[in-house]
Structures are given as structure tokens and as C-alpha cells.
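Let's inspect a concrete specimen:
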Amino acid sequence: MTRLICVECGQPRLPESDRCSGCGRESISHEEGQAGSASRELAFPSSWPSGILLLVIAGVLAGVVLTSMTVHDHSSHSQVSGEPVAEAVQTAPDLSRETMHFQALNAKTEKFEYASRIADSLNHLGQPALAAAWLEKAWQTDSTDAGLALRIANIWFDAGIKKMAVPYYRSFLNRFPDQANARVDYATALMEAGEVMQAVTELKRVLERNPTHQVANLNLGILNLQIGRPDQALMYFETARKADPVSQAGIRAAEMKSLIKTQTN
């Protein structure tokens, strides 16, 4: 895959645009080689610290606030809080010309490739919500692409609008049900969407195949704590701690264990 780079400021330019998105000049650009985008979607590291659910405790264990990964499909935009997306739109470059060009394309492959290029440029420019929206245009041309589904989910997740990721994680997991880390992220997205018990179910599915999965155990501990099951929470926290005591998840699990014992003694 290639992208256009402005020779004036070195910033990427949006395809089919006469002006640089960085400096706004009508400058000449050149193509720069760029690796494909499949590495993130299909390469799952052994630990995702960013996927750990954060617990905020005010006073005693009364207030539990979870933050997680999330996604929604294009048909759900009107149902989800639009403030983060609206803010991105206000600061984004004018994409009317790109939109018209996309609509004028006839072949599905051309639409797919064009929308993907626009999304790459927007994501590089710090516009993840708009990037995800353009990837959804590509998704409309090929909703069987599991890698694209995970890519959209991850962008919404990283943008902090995790509820938007739910249907895309679900679509990906329908094709690759054994991808544990994606399922943990899916559970986090479900949690943000208010589907607590479904999130618990998904995390338990992870543990059926990998009982010592650290982040899954940590998140299950937090969820059980939230629904009033401190004994179960302690069990999951201990498993998470033992999996890797010096990792971020292991340290948090140990802290949670200590806090529960302090409050229950």
C-alpha cells in the first residue's frame, strides 16, 4: 500500500485532494512505501496492557468504574453518543471531494481500496473516528472481510468509543472464535455497552480454552466485584496475579486482592 507525502511539510495527503492536509498548500507530493495493515489485526501479542479494565474506587468498594474496548456498526451511529465523533468532524479536513469521488466509483474493489486509503490517511492525522467511518464504507462493499472487521473494531476501541466496536468484534469472532485477546476486547466493549452478563460469558469462554489468561481473569475479577461477588473476584484476581506477578495486570490484581481483604476484614 502507498500513501501520498507532501514535499513541503512531510505530512500525508488525502487521495484525490489538491491540498496537503498538514500545511494546506497546493504542493507536489510523492508516494511513500507503506506496509500493509494486516499485522495488527491478525497478530495477537501475549498481553495487551491497554485492554485491562481500570477500576476506580471512591472510599470503599462502592464505586466501580470500568473502561473497556468498544465498537458499533455504521447503522448504529445515531444510537450512540456522538460527541467524540462530532468533535473529530469539527477539526477534520473537508472530505466532500473525497466523498463525491467514492460515490462515483462503480467497482466494489475500487470503492474498498479508495475508502481504505482515506482511512489510513485520517488515522495517521489523528482522526480515528473519521478513519473508522471510512473503513465502514469499505465494509459496506465487503462485509465478509474478517481482517477489516477487526481493524474497524480496534480503531473504535483505541478512539475510546468502544461501544462502536461490538458488531465488528462479533463478526471477526464468528470467523476466528479461538482468538482470545480479541474476545477479551469484545467483552470490554460489551461492558461499556451495558451488557455486563454477556461480557462475563465471553470472558468465561476465554478461560475455557486458556484458564490462566491474565487479562481475562483480571477483568472477570473486576466484573464479579461489581456485581457483588467478592469471593469469586478474589479467585480470579489470584489467578491473574500468579500468571505474571510483575506485569501491569499482575500488579493490579495484587492491589485488588489486598483492597478487598482490607475492606472485608
Q: What stands out?
A: Confidence is low (pLDDT under 50) at residues 1-90. The first strand starts at residue 2 and ends at 6. The CA atoms of residues 49 and 248 lie 7 Å apart. Residues 108-124 form the longest helix (17 residues).
